[in-house]
Amino acid sequence: MANLQLIETTPSDFSPQPITEEEARAMFRAALNLFRLWDITDDHAATLLDMSVRTFRRWKTGDLGNMSRDMKARLSNLMGIYKALRLIFHEPQRGYSWIKAPNAAFGGRPAIDVMLGGELTDLMRVRRYLDAERGAW
């Protein structure tokens, strides 16, 4: 007769790893390229990242400061929006244009207008919409 061994089946609590400074800096550099592709002004980029225009311009030159948890979350949501648009649209330019096109899901407003509300939840709203459109997983 074989000896049975007890196997733990209780799932462990989910504990996401925080975004490192190195990862956040890479996301910031990617966001700069994204803002260029979306044709976003420095004023609007600063609003999306919840920072002053002066600080944004300094960071844009490579003189980055420490990134807060909120900044990392904003960058993560922007990367999620970019990824969702790339998955939804086969032609990259259509995805870049979508951000400024009127959208019934946002009361006829473009997604960029929603995101420029300045709150992290505004970015999350657009990301959740796109994730739902593409099937999320």
Low-confidence stretches: none
End-to-end span in angstroms? 44 Å
Roughly what percent helix?
55-70%
Total beta strands: 0
Largest sheet: none
Could you characterize what this model shows?
By secondary structure, this protein is mainly α. It is 59% helix and 0% strand. It contains seven helices and no strands. It has helices spanning 21-38, 42-49, 53-60, 69-88, 92-98, 111-115, 120-134. It is globular. The mean pLDDT is 91.
List the helices and strands and how they pair.
Blueprint (H helix, E strand, L loop, with lengths): L20 H18 L3 H8 L3 H8 L8 H20 L3 H7 L12 H5 L4 H15 L3
Helix pairs in contact: 1-4, 2-3, 4-5, 4-7
Question: How would you summarize this macromolecular structure in one to three sentences?
Answer:
The protein is mainly α and 137 residues long. The chain has helices spanning 21-38, 42-49, 53-60, 69-88, 92-98, 111-115, 120-134.
